Structures are given as structure tokens and as C-alpha cells.
Amino acid sequence: MEERKTGKLYIVGTPIGNLGDITVRALEVLKSADLIACEDTRHTLGLLTHFGIRKPLVSYYKPKEKEGAERILASLRRGDTVALVTDAGMPCISDPGALLVGRAVNEGIEVSSAPGPTAVTTAMALSGICEPVFVFIGFLPPKKRDAIRVLERCARAEATIALYSSPHSVNDDLALIYEVLGARRVVTARELTKIYESVEERELPFTIESPKGEYVLLVRSEEKREDAPQGTLKEQAEALISAGVPKKDAVKRVARDNGVPKDEVYKLFIGREE
């Protein structure tokens, strides 16, 4: 009996703003696909209509990612060619897709890509930041405690920290970055490739008046200062405490000045008598 051949999954990048940025290959894949899996069927329908493409659509979005993956995998097992897109940019990069790709790979289904733009690499290219390394963390977790942990893990990295932010949370995100990382310089990039594209750099603390559009925040690594703190973390904290600074405030200040997590400083005092 002849073995039945499975289909092929394409990861297709779509424009992050300007429809003219779609690639020839992306259009070829979308035109040849048996099924297009998308984050928002209404949004993708607009894209396809613009380029004169008519194909069956299936919804595939974060809250229902497991159920959506099963439907798409069923099509792939039947031998269909499926194109996966999101509302903007590359699937799997702070967007749905990684779960589906992982399942497809585990089942031996062929996976390929028609790559396209992403907001984070576009922002880095426009920023003028010359650091060779950046750490991309996507969106900060919604719970403050979790967001602080993420930022603290990045605190000592000699690299730009890149993250996404919505207009509803960008000022809260900037305030939290200042709280955890101190007075870093931050590039704010918004409406990339669109008419009102803007890329600006300022030093924290600052807020954005009437924020609109999606943001990429690029937090520069901490500059090495001539007035950098002297002594070990414990010695710095003890000096502040001896000067009358409450332990909690001393720990927070030393952590910020040295770009380390507060827990790392605090644990030096566990078991110490008040």
C-alpha cells in the first residue's frame, strides 16, 4: 500500500504597516495554498482582497491556539498546503504559530517559510544603536511581579533590550523599566512603515503624551560611568544602611546602580540581625 503523503506548512511574513512591503514569494505561497490560517480572518481577508487572492480561511489565535492547531494539522495530514499568517509581521515572533510549528515538526510534516518584516528588526535598523547584541522579550507579562522578573533577568546583559508595547500600556511599561533599570536611554519606535512613523530617543524617566499605535521600545545597555559604584554589593548596601538609609531602600538603590536584580542584593542580608 502506498504511503500517503502529508502536506506542507508555510510560515508567511506579512507587512507590518505598508502593504507594498509584501514579498513576491509571500504572494506566490498565498495564491498556491489550499488553506490560509490567520490570526484575524477579517484582517487577513482585507490583505488578500487587496492582492486579488481568494482562499479558504481558518482562524488561529492565541486563546484557542491548541484547538486551532488540531484543525490545521488535520488538513496537513490530508496532504493540504497550509499558509500561516498573522495580522502583521512573522508568525511565531510574539504572535501565534510556535505551537503549531512544533507539532508539525514532531509529526514529520514539512515546514518552510516565506519570510517577511518584523517590527523589532525594523526598529533596530532605524534606531542607530550600534551594539552588536540585543535581547528581545516580546510583550512584558501583564502581572507586575512577572514583568519585574523579566526585566531583572536582562538587567546585567551588555545588550539592548527590545520589547513590544501597546498604546494602553506603554507609559506603564516605561515607568516599570525606570523602576527596575534606572535612567536608561530608550528608543521609542511607532507606526513603523506607515505615514506617521516616528523613531525617537530619550532618557528615562519620561512619558508619551496621547500614545497611539503599537510601539517597539529599545532600552540601551547601561553606560559604564566614571562614577560607577565602588566596592562589593554588600559593602555598598552596608554603607547606605550605616548612613541611615532603610535596608529596603538601600537594596533597591544598590540593585539599580549596579544593574542587578534586587533579590541578588537582598539575599546577602538573609539571616543578618537587624
Give a verbal description of the structure.
The chain has 3 domains: 8-117, Cobalt-precorrin-4 Transmethylase, domain 1, CATH 3.40.1010.10; 120-219, Tetrapyrrole methylase, C-terminal domain (Methyltransferase, Cobalt-precorrin-4 Transmethylase, Domain 2, 2-Layer Sandwich); 233-269. Helix 2 links the parallel strand 2 (35-38) and strand 3 (57-59). It has 274 residues and is α/β, with parallel strands linked by helices. Helix 3 (65-77) runs parallel beside helix 4 and helix 6 (144-154) packs across helix 7. The protein has helices spanning 24-32, 41-50, 65-77, 98-106, 119-127, 144-154, 170-181, 233-242, 247-258, 262-266; strands at residues 8-12, 35-38, 57-59, 81-84, 110-114, 134-139, 160-165, 185-190, 198-203, 215-219. The strands form 2 sheets. A 5-stranded parallel β-sheet has the order 3-2-4-1-5, with helices on both faces. The protein is 36% helix and 18% strand.
